[in-house]
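Shipment paperwork, digital attachment
Item: protein structure file
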Amino acid sequence: DDDEDSDEYSESDLDSDEELERRIEAAREKRHERQREAMKNRSPDHLRSPICCILGHVDTGKTKLLDKIRGTNVQDGEAGGITQQIGATYIPGKEIATRTECLGDKQMKGSKLPGLLVIDTPGHESFTNLRSRGSGLCDIAILVVDIMHGLEQQTIESLNMLKMRKTPFIIALNKVDRMYDWKPIPNGGFRETLASQGDHVQQEFKKRYNDAVLALNQEGMNVALYWENPDIKSYVSIVPTSAITGEGIPDILNLLVTLTQQMMVERLMHTEYLQCTVLEVKQIEGLGTTIDVILINGTLRETDTIVVCGLGGPIVTPVRALLTPHPMREMRVKGSYLHHKEIEAAQGVKICANDLEGALAGTPLFVLGPEDDEEDLKDEVVSDVQSILGQVDKSGEGVCVQASTLGSLEALLEFLKSPDVRIPVSGISIGPVHKRDVMKASIMLERKKEYAVILAFDVDVSREAREMAKELDIKIFTADIIYHLFDQFTAYMKKVKEDRKKEVALDATFPCVLKILPTCIFNKKDPIVLGVEVLGGIAKVGSPLCVPTQDFVEIGRIASLEKNHKAVDKAYVGDSVAMKVNSTTALEASRMYGRHFDHTDELVSRISRHSIDLLKENYRDELTKEDWQLVLKLKHLFQIQ
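Attachment content:
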């Protein structure tokens, strides 16, 4: 049918743009129609596996917990039927049933779920990356909190993200085995384990549990132990666990199945309409560039043509192979993957195809069906990225931002836009930092030097790029956690500010009015040394002084100030200080106390248009409202425009 296509296209080249628009519109309508049709045909008897993410602070035990949930006990061959997939682990329903047997009558009976798909990359990166078409990719999340440490920074970030995305979640209160004198029952249900502990252990658990609850309440969450939960819709369930001994894991699996089946049947019904998200883009020896995707709904076939979004625009390419790793027995031999003719959701799959180098992680993937219009799908894929690229400040002043995926880029841009941060962005890109990115950032050297910076979030920096950045004096900040980037950048900005202040210190004249104390005249001629009282503003070392009442005669700059026999840099209103004034020109050197001015005259700092601008730019926060009023007064006095 290729020939028919080409005929159709050669004719359509002659069509006007409106015709094309109309055709795309019709195809889009048809596609939405098919989607609605697929939605109608779903049945609550045919469910897909829920997709679950694990989030939490560093070192709360996410990875350990994940391993425990996956039951990575590879020794006994097939490992309980759990198959390791790309970017995700699939736990069949049968396996869940066996592992929750120890709960006795609390076990969920008659589950219709085929299993659970747990996303492998623990942490919120995967969560931010996976915005499968507006709805988060995760159906349910586990937020891990360390019972020994309580809530930590990243935990709170994850909490807010879950709230923002309205993702249902449960809280695993991990590391209970760390409590003093805890006697474990490996892989047991938590309630029986707790009951079998000594009194002092139960007391400690109560205390720590209450601390955690209080902290969560302060974040605005209603929480309760899962077996005491009054209402699963408004209270978040807490499951105490230990990733080391496996206690509480049956409870978690059971709760995940129960919750998803009670609350999310609507969401979990399997449809034939394809939903698929790119997880990451990887180079693999012997296969070239591949993409790892999570298939959320629908079916992928080896004969499909896929449409994904790339940095340069949409990529349309036929699938060469659909791969999943072998079952656990043959642990990861290089290049040993199982080939599939077709794969049904929900699963993690590796797709081999040509031209995937520019593909963006975190974007949707479409299959070009026989009834689809290619242009329509291209528009659809790119629309997501367009909205993000639109956030960049085109005025051209700002830092350059790079992130590993579209999702993390979006999270980073959101963060930089937030009111506490407010860092302007002039350029963005996805993937490792290369020389061309450094070149792009170097444009800022001419415009605003402090923005000649690359913020690299969770990406590598190539060696050439590093060397080039060093040469051009461009800062590259790298971090895996958004805050760390922010901290580095704020520290850098602070240093830049300090340096700027040092540079302009001499020219930025602070406003001041000084009254000479007639009893404290120590030296009348260059250097003039007098006692003065500050009537207004700030007397600062380096400020040039003049005497307005003696027709603005200039007497030099303040060389030093002493207050109570201690040298100070600045003197404020009401201070009485000894002041030494050094001349800067021969004319100033001839000025003398008693001849050109005396104690009846006030001394005033000589400000200028330039010095006012510098004050506004660099010292705005160091001057009070009264100081600025004095600046205005002096402006009139010196008749500055």
